[in-house]
UniProtKB/TrEMBL annotation:
Subcellular location: Cell membrane
Keyword Coiled coil: no
Identification of the protein by name: Peptide MFS transporter
Keywords: Cell membrane, Membrane, Peptide transport, Protein transport, Transmembrane, Transmembrane helix, Transport
SUPFAM superfamilies: MFS general substrate transporter
PROSITE patterns referenced in this protein's UniProt entry, alphabetically: MFS, PTR2_1
Record-annotated membrane-spanning stretches: 25-44, 56-76, 85-102, 108-127, 148-168, 174-195, 216-238, 244-265, 277-295, 335-352, 364-386, 398-422, 434-453, 465-491
Organism: Candidatus Andeanibacterium colombiense
Length: 500
């Protein structure tokens, strides 16, 4: 079978592939260093935050990245067009990385995180929209192949970032690592700006063309931006409790989620069958939030565990500290995804031909069970390390990431497909917004749990890991037991509300 290449696809695919790869390089590079930087002593170039505060900031940042995708998509649709949104998003991400490199105190640090969140919110959803728009509606097979190439770029950037940025940051100073992400993103954005003309009309236009409509749109956008700026200044200058800020953000995400679903369910144009499908989406989104709350601990809990409790003497002679960088372990999961995605795709296809492919709810349940098993493995690793009075071997983290990646491959590739397939036509945008809200909620929880875990002594960790393992396994089993009912909800058909 011939392997697909860029020559088989529109020329714009390579432009978007490269842009997304650099964006993921910048984001995952920052994520790999962020909690290490915040919790390191001042003498080591860090901020010397306690782990609870650092975890809260990490959670707020990673959640904000996904929350900003909602206004970012609106701005592109209404005012900017996807092409300009991606350009401005890249500039903001690059500028934010450089801001993090400036030793200007807490306000500058938080401003850098805000700018990056805004940039990712502009770039990430809109570059994906343009990939889909490269292909005519009838070219579904080529579109699927194009997205496969595009997603390879995502994980290529995620794999390379911790190795490059992590090594620079942990070996030569965290701020140098942050500067590297800014320079890389600005370089990628310059490349995009120079050749984006090859995209043609894809993503160039926006909905609001009349001057009066655009004026009102920009006024609304400016008002929202000013409110956000005042909020971040208050958080930075007044030194608010970041754990309280994280709790407030969690309440906002919860209220938005309930509001989204409530508005859809109250729509009188939807019949009972469409409402059942919306309820099925709600259950699937809850599973996504729970899974992400465990998976995103790679940058918080697991990152701190790699630094403080993992034997990193392998290749340690090449580094002044006598240990290889803790951030290297952040590359393990993306590498697994690159290697195992084709295996999973082929496996699901083979099971489908035999009529044995599990339903989406069963796959979601399996992902949660695998997530729980990974935390049970962490509990065993810590227990053995405590019993023998030594740090944990690095192989434990590598096995943990394998289990979590297997779970990710059971939920990630089919999650968006399931939600878009179930969404009523008139509310497809809101249901896609629910995916981002679920991911934001999970990311926020991951940061808070990371701070809670990081504040524990090693001897107290096994019980905490076992608690998280229990939650994952019980939720996964419940999902599998309820899968029949969820499938029946999802199978409901309605003329006006359901997709074929």
């Amino acid at each position: 079978m011939r392997i697909a290449s860029f020559s088989d696809h529109p020329p714009g695919l390579f432009i978007l592939f490269a842009t997304e790869a650099w964006e993921r390089f910048a984001y995952y590079g920052i994520r790999a260093l962020l909690i290490l930087f915040m919790t390191s002593p001042l003498a080591a170039g860090g901020l010397e935050f306690d782990t609870a505060t650092a975890g809260a900031i990490y959670g707020v940042f990673t959640a904000s990245v996904y929350l900003m995708s909602l206004p970012g998509g609106w701005l592109a649709d209404k005012l900017l067009g996807q092409q300009r949104a991606v350009l401005w998003g890249g500039l903001l991400i690059g500028g934010g990385g450089l801001l993090l490199a400036v030793p200007g105190g807490l306000p500058v640090f938080r401003a850098g995180l805000l700018v990056i969140s805004l940039g990712v919110g502009l770039l990430k959803p809109n570059v994906s929209v343009m990939v889909g728009d490269l292909y005519p509606p009838e070219a579904s097979a080529r579109r699927d192949a194009g997205f496969s190439i595009f997603y390879f770029g995502i994980y290529l950037g995620a794999f390379a970032a911790p190795l490059v940025v992590g090594t620079l940051g942990e070996s030569f100073g965290y701020r140098l690592g942050f500067a590297a992400t800014g320079v890389a993103m600005l370089g990628g954005t310059l490349f995009y700006a120079r050749i984006r003309g090859r995209l043609g009309a894809v993503g160039r236009d926006c909905e609001l063309q009349a001057p009066e409509e655009r004026r009102r749109g920009w006024i609304a956008t400016g008002s929202l931006g000013a409110a956000m700026l005042l909020t971040i200044l208050a958080v930075g200058l007044l030194r608010l409790d970041m754990e309280a800020v994280a709790a407030c953000l969690g309440a906002i995400i919860g209220a938005l989620s309930l509001g989204f679903f409530g508005l859809v369910l109250r729509d009188r144009k939807l019949d009972e069958a469409a409402r059942r499908r919306v309820i099925a989406i709600f259950v699937l989104c809850a599973c996504v939030a729970l899974f992400i709350s465990g998976l995103e601990q790679a940058g918080s809990t697991m990152n701190l565990f790699a630094r403080d409790f993992t034997d990193r003497s392998f290749m340690g002679g090449f580094f002044a500290a006598g240990q290889h960088p803790a951030s290297w372990y952040q590359s393990v999961s993306p590498l697994y995804v690159l290697l195992l995605s084709p295996v999973f795709a082929a496996g699901w296809m083979r099971l489908s031909r035999r009529g044995l492919e599990p339903s989406a709810p069963v796959k979601f349940g399996l992902s949660l069970i695998l997530l729980g098993a990974s935390f049970a493995l962490m509990a065993l690793a810590v227990t053995l390390a405590v019993q023998h009075g030594m740090k944990a071997a690095p192989g434990w983290l590598i096995l943990v990431y394998l289990l979590q990646t297997l779970g990710e491959l059971c939920i990630g590739p089919i999650g968006l497909s399931a939600i878009t397939g179930l969404a009523p036509r008139s509310h497809a945008g809101r249901m896609m917004g629910m995916w981002f809200l679920a991911t934001a909620a999970g990311s926020l929880i991951a940061g808070l749990v990371g701070g809670w875990m990081g504040s524990a002594q090693m001897a107290a960790m096994p019980a905490r890991f076992l608690g998280m393992a229990g939650i994952g396994v019980v939720a996964g089993i419940a999902m599998i037991l309820l899968s029949g009912a969820i499938v029946r909800l999802a199978a409901s058909r309605s003329a006006q509300g359901a997709r074929p």
